[in-house]
Amino acid sequence: MSNVKQVVTQLFKCNQITIPENRQSLFEEFLQDEQNLTIINTLIQNQNELMAKWKLQDRIAEIMQQPIRLANATVGKPYQAEFDLDKFNWPDIIAFEWDGLERVGLTYDDTTKQISGVPTQSGDIKLLFKFKVADQPEEDAFNHKPVTLIINPDPKSLWKNLESDTNDPHWKDDNLTMFAPLGDRHILVSSKRGRSHANMGSFREDDFAFQDLANGWSLVVVADGAGSAKLSRKGSSMACQGIVNYFQEQASVESLAEFDDLLQQHIQNTSDDTQKKLNRFVYNNLGKAAFQVHKQLETFAAQESLTLKDLSSTLIFTLFKKYEVGYALLSFGVGDCPIAVLNKDISEVNLMNWLDVGEFGGGTRFITMPEIFQSEKFATRFGFKLLADFSYLIMMSDGIYDPKFVVEANLPNIQKWQEFLADLNGQNEEGIAVELSPDNKEIEEQLSRWMDFWSPGNHDDRTLAIVF
User: Fold this and answer.
1) Of 68, 83, 218, 244, which has the fewest beta carbons less than 10 angstroms from its beta carbon?
2) CATH number for the domain formed by residue range(s) 73-158
């Protein structure tokens, strides 16, 4: 009765009706009248229903207005985002479904409470979160809450791949991959124009060469033309071919034949003296090759009214030959391209050169720089190793070294080389594997695909040579 009296009193008050003291008994009789009581109870019931409807609509509006932020996705990359009703304080949602996930390659799993999949398209994707809350009539339609999922494009797709000008007098292939026998081994080498160059339709600056020489020697050369030099592509090409030409000259052939005698002396009587003779041989012969390339570049620059700086290029090369006692490896390097030899069971790495980084100037050096040949460090640019056997001789430009090794300090770490080989074997984000086997008919295609690996911020030319 008190609730009835309260409801009617409030109703009268809203209609500016007050019950004076001398009408209270009449008011009590009014409230107890059977017909009036029926009307009042109906009024209370309607009021309760109205309040319930308002609370329901208010709750739906509250959910509709509460923001849902899903983590950004990227086209082609596996995506996973938690969507748990409890995290949004929505325990009263009794049914829901997503509309629009499937069309972009995603699904929702109610067991794991995860939105997952591999997005297939980019953009601000408009999804619908369709839901019902407790106390909604069963026949009611789902409420529709718009949710935006940002799917970023695959970064690779943002890069253009414009062909370089084939009519340019110094044009060369944008991408080149080769596999061939070399000595008693095989060589697999690839040189690819970097995305930064492909995006502008400019040229590949890296280059390479390899050649079987007389007297059982084999040669591998890699050069990285400086991107800031307008004809570095020509400089790297000339440097590689110049080294090959030098060691094919008769004087070089005869000189290399002397190495056999020096090595035999060293094997029979290992001493500081024989070691010094070998080091001097490497210094004289490889040094002459490097200097001849420098002079050829100097001549070309003068003929073409260029500066030597216009032809700037790094240069590394390695000669190797098999003897009864093992393999002799001779090397030279200027710039930031490493040469590494891994032993047979891949438990040790021998670095055949140091890089022109860090204390050596904070930046790379080029074969075009005259000061290279005048520096007291010139003699340290040569390497000589006599190894019983090896599994891989690996040479690379900084387009490979930077993303895969990051810093020079990682190069002596055999674990990093083991990881690098595992990467080649398919342990990478793209799952692309290169089977380093002479019987692999797809070896060139596999390496060419592997060379396109994605590494944020590393879009330079890439050259990788592997002797195995």
Assistant:
1) 68
2) 2.60.40.10
User: Tokens for 364?
Assistant: 């790379």
| Residues 451, 467: Cα–Cα separation, whole Å | 17
**Bridge partner list, 218:** 212, 320
pLDDT at res. 268:
87
C-alpha to C-alpha distance for 450 and 20, rounded to whole angstroms: 95
Contact of 299 with 242, CB cutoff 8 Å: no
Q: Rounding to the nearest 10 degrees, give the CA dihedral for residues 93, 94, 100, 104.
A: 90
Q: What is the pTM of this model?
A: 0.79
- In whole angstroms, give the CA distance from residue 423 to residue 399: 16
Residue 210 is predicted with a pLDDT of 98
> Beta-carbon neighbour count of residue 10 at 10 Å?
11
Beta bridge partners of 124: 150
What does the domain layout of the chain look like in residue ranges?
2-65, 73-158, 175-467
392 phi and psi angles, rounded to 5 deg: -145, 135
Tell me the C-alpha distance between 292 and 285, whole Å: 11
Give the residue from 342, 330, 332, 317 showing the smallest Cα distance to 417.
342
Q: H or E segment at 144?
A: strand 143-152
Determine which helix (DSSP H) or strand (DSSP E) holds 207, and give its type and residue range.
Answer: strand 206-212
